[in-house]
Specification:
heterodimer, A: alpha+beta, PmbA/TldD fold, 2 domains, 23 strands, B: 447 residues, alpha+beta, six-stranded antiparallel beta sheet, 10 helices
Chain lengths: 480, 447
């Protein structure tokens, strides 16, 4: 690997690159799906290759190939250089990467049990037990459970002298029960939606979920939702469970603080951001209860690593401090525009993609309330749990979310189960209406393995530490 | 210089030899091999300049084995003897280690129709050609005092699928797509195009469209949310159709009681006819599916009546019928997928769709559409890059983007007119749709 990396960097320099980096990447993934009591799918996917990123005349070029040999490296470097020269013909401002990055080292995800050493039968049996628990509930039409395990070995080297080796592991699982009636499809999932809950770590992460203990509960909830009353429309107090709070952070704080979006680099696809540079250190983004960090050091987070894909060390930085907007997620190129240094958020989803600014673990810091206290202190509200649908505008202001489950809250007590719950708002108004965040004991790191961005499209695995949180004067019940 | 950039796909004969050898060496009762190889490049621009510019060459070899009532699937991204042995070994190991499960049957041999989806010009497109194309949009935008953003991609791909029952199909294709957002101080426009042959993309035409839209969409003012008559441009119609396909047009969705399709019943207005046809050269054709079944045309909605859904091997076998050639790669628990969608055009020229609208909204495109209620076909999303107020049959001013929460079937039930021309919209991940613009009686904007 080291030889190939050096060959690529040498070739790039000889051919005229002012800067070059190379990433060699080997990726293994196992997926298991159990559906309606049957093992429906097991797959084992492997991918390896390398990508070379070069700066020529202040413009970027990138090429990648699955063929890991020296001849191909020469061709790929030629291709990257030629592409960079073509970029330079239609360049706006020369790229400035700021100070050199010379990181060297090795990182491995801490884990107790290598998920690839766990017998397939053990994994399948756990999913089948959870499936049986769901199947024992009358009225459940579709049951599904899945697991996913990833191992990525990657090498990063640059012409500035960086050389990094990382071995990253992820483990994820989830179960879902679906019940239908002539007019309804209601589903409940555990621990999260989007198919599974995922984190950096080993099989211990799966064991801790106790999937089989939750199958019966979610199945009963899915069936009960079919006949539950519709979530009423109105402006109410809203309490979100930790997983929905995590998605709210993702969409309305994580994405708009990506500095490449702010500079228009995603304008034609993912969009831009309302959090423009003149608002930095001035915008009261949220209430004093709201402090949000980007922290690539959070244990079990999907955004936890040793260095990003530009060789910048993993670190923690503040995005929102007691409600005030104080920082961005940055890369070397974008940070230098603001006279800053990268806070290490550049990641590619494979050898064949360039790194982009991606959320690491964007965490809402725990407060000092609790879910029970929030409910007890609410006269007229709705509690919502587990995401069902999500949509937000291209500047990350106007959002609408739906959740799988909701309960009305009347005079401090949890009331009726409600179906098809939705809420909508405008980002700063919403976060400024946050008057309580639950404490550390209810705070958890939620992995999202489906964050899309970039052209060609990339899917990042990111995470959000979150606890239940309460918001005032929120429009709920968009579906009447 | 040009020859170096010509797409470097493996010769078909070599692919076939690789596949045959793998099938021959498999000890399983049934084996399927799928090879996808691609060479893609994409030039991305922002603020009137290229800021990202990439190329990749990759291959996927996917093997499915069935052994003693057990199925194993493995993939690798190398096409050589060592890789073949490795991927086969891993697929067999998975099958051996698991309890018996449901086996999705493999199809037997059937002739597939050859469709021409290849362009040498696209396969050989150079970074300089992409840069020149992009430069036209950026220069024109700059001259107009605007900023251009977007991406221009060219790609070549080959796909082969074979199984131990005698199936072998091979198809190669190219595609070229350009999308652009142009922004001014107070508003933006959008345009995109897709084609098999890059020479069919006219850089001046797309530049003029997106710049014109951006210029007309400056200083938009808010408008009260509510129910409005609308004209949806083809960009928005295609997105809506793709969501209908995702939630409703699959036999599995019907079987699992998740679909809005009530076969034989009227579900939209009678001006709506939708079908899937993987062989139509005006779409993005592919002659067979990811299980090796030749594609059939399937009528989905005929004059407003739910006419049919698409099948793969699993759903077809369960119902005792033939697959329509809409299977996805194994292992697949999502069911079949219609990815070559067409909506029948009407008789009204697109500019005349607004004739007679007293007060309505013109929507260029949707953004961040998500399903809110699958069975009622309710989606939510935002309008983006050109939302205009229509008053007394003409566009009077731009309005701020709006959020909609709307049942797709109810919206199409109120179809008042369908545009005379259609546009090809290439999907972000898979497939394409060819659709007209439509005029709908009622569309609900919620904020």
């Amino acid at each position: 690997m080291k030889d190939l990396a050096e060959a690529a960097l040498n070739a790039a320099q000889v051919k005229g690159a002012g800067y070059a980096d190379v990433r060699l990447d080997e990726h293994v993934q196992q997926d298991i799906i159990v559906k309606n009591g049957q093992l429906a799918a097991v797959s084992d996917d492997a991918s390896e290759g390398f990508g070379v990123r070069v700066l020529v005349d202040g413009a970027w070029g990138f090429a990648g190939s699955a063929r890991l040999n020296k001849n191909e490296i020469e061709e790929v470097v030629d291709r990257a250089i030629r592409i960079a020269r073509a970029s330079a013909r239609v360049r706006s401002t020369p790229v400035d990467l700021g100070p050199p990055v010379t990181s060297r080292g090795h990182y491995r995800t801490p884990l107790e049990r290598d998920p690839f050493s766990v017998p397939l039968t053990e994994k399948v049996e756990l999913l089948l037990r959870a499936d049986a628990a769901m199947g024992a509930v009358k009225g459940v039409g579709i049951r599904e459970g899945s697991m996913e395990f990833l191992r990525q070995r990657k090498v990063f080297a640059s012409t500035e002298g960086a050389f990094i080796e990382q071995e990253l592991y992820e483990s994820g699982a989830g179960i879902e029960a679906t019940a239908t009636s002539p007019d309804e499809v209601q589903n409940r999932s555990y621990p999260n939606s989007f198919g599974r809950h995922q984190g950096s770590g080993g099989y211990e992460y799966i064991t801790a979920m106790q999937l089989d203990r939750h199958g019966g509960r979610i199945a009963e909830e899915a069936v009960a939702l079919l006949t539950a009353p519709q979530c009423p429309s109105g402006v109410k107090t809203l309490i979100l469970d930790a997983s929905q709070t995590a998605l709210q952070i993702h969409e309305s704080c994580g994405h708009p603080t990506e500095l490449d979006r702010v500079f228009g680099m995603e304008a034609a696809y993912a969009g831009t951001s309302f959090m423009t540079p003149e608002k930095l250190n001035h915008l009261q983004y949220g209430s004093p209860q709201v402090t949000i960090t980007a922290d690539a050091l959070t244990p079990t987070g999907l955004g936890t690593f040793g260095w990003d894909d530009e060789g910048v060390p993993a670190q923690q930085s503040f995005l929102i401090k007691e409600g005030l907007f104080v920082g961005y997620l940055t890369s070397r190129e974008t940070a230098s525009v603001l006279g800053q240094q990268s806070n290490g958020t550049m990641r590619a989803d494979g050898w064949n993609r360039i790194p982009l600014i991606r959320m690491t673990n964007v965490n809402l810091q725990p407060g000092n309330s609790s879910l029970n206290e929030m409910i007890a202190d609410t006269k007229d509200g709705v509690y919502m749990e587990t995401n069902r649908s999500w949509s937000i505008d291209d500047k990350r202001l106007n959002f609408q979310f739906g959740t799988q489950l909701a309960y009305e809250i009347v005079n401090g007590k949890r009331g009726r189960l409600l179906k098809n719950a939705t809420y909508a708002g405008i980002t700063p108004e919403f976060w400024n209406s946050c008057d309580a965040v639950a404490g550390r004991s209810e705070w958890k790191v939620w992995g999202l393995a489906n964050c899309g961005k970039g052209q060609p499209p990339q899917t990042a695995h990111v995470a959000h530490g979150a606890a239940p949180a309460r918001f005032q004067h929120v429009k709920v019940g968009i579906l009447k | 210089m040009k020859s170096m950039e010509a797409s470097r796909l493996t010769e078909e004969g070599e692919v076939k030899r690789f596949v045959d050898k793998l099938l021959h060496e498999s000890p399983a009762q049934q084996t399927e091999v799928m090879v996808t190889e691609w060479d893609n490049a994409l030039t991305r621009f922002a603020n009137n300049g290229i800021h990202q510019n990439v190329a990749e060459r990759d291959v996927s070899v996917r093997v499915r084995v069935v052994k003693g009532g057990k199925t194993g699937v493995a993939s690798i991204n190398q096409m050589n003897e060592k890789a073949a042995a490795d991927v086969l070994k891993r697929a067999i190991a998975i099958a051996d280690l698991q309890p018996e499960g449901e086996v999705v049957p493999m199809p037997g041999p059937a002739k597939s129709q050859s469709v021409g989806a290849w362009s040498d010009a696209t396969a050989a497109a150079t970074p300089e050609e992409r840069a020149d194309f992009v430069a036209t949009i950026c220069t024109k935008a700059k001259r107009a005092g605007l900023n251009a953003f977007g991406a221009f991609s060219t790609g070549a791909e080959q796909f082969a699928i074979a199984n131990s029952l005698g199936v072998y199909h091979h198809h190669r294709s190219t595609d070229a797509t350009i999308n652009s957002v142009v922004m001014g101080e107070a508003g933006s426009g959008y345009a995109d195009r897709g084609a098999i042959d890059v020479r069919d993309l006219n850089k001046d035409e797309i530049a003029d469209e997106v710049i014109d839209k951006a210029q007309r969409n400056q200083n938009a003012q808010p408008i009260e949310p509510g129910v409005y008559e609308v004209v949806l441009e083809e960009y928005a119609v295609a997105e809506m159709l793709e969501f209908m396909s995702y939630t409703g047009f699959s036999a599995l969705a019907v079987e699992e009681d998740r679909s809005f399709m009530k076969l034989g019943e009227r579900i939209t207005g009678d001006k709506i006819t939708v079908w899937d046809d993987g062989l139509d050269l005006s779409g993005l054709p592919a002659p067979f599916d990811f299980e090796g079944v030749p594609k059939q045309r399937v009528d989905l909605i005929k004059k407003g009546v739910a006419a049919g859904v698409v099948y793969d091997m699993q759903t077809a076998t369960k119902e005792g019928r033939q697959s329509t050639g809409h299977g996805l790669p194994a292992p697949n628990t999502e069911g079949p997928f219609a990815i070559n969608l067409f909506m029948q055009p009407g008789s009204v020229p697109k500019p005349e769709l607004i004739a007679g609208i007293k007060r309505g909204i013109w929507v260029t495109r949707f953004w961040y559409v998500r399903i809110v209620h699958p069975k009622l076909s309710i989606i939510t999303g935002m309008t983006r890059d050109g939302t205009f107020l229509i008053e007394n049959g003409r566009i009077t001013r731009p309005v701020k983007d709006l959020r909609f929460t709307q049942s797709m079937l109810e919206a199409l039930d109120g179809t008042l007119a369908v545009g005379k021309t259609t546009k090809l919209q290439i999907g972000e991940f898979i497939g394409a749709s060819r659709v007209p613009a439509v005029r709908l009686k009622a569309f609900t904007f919620t904020s």
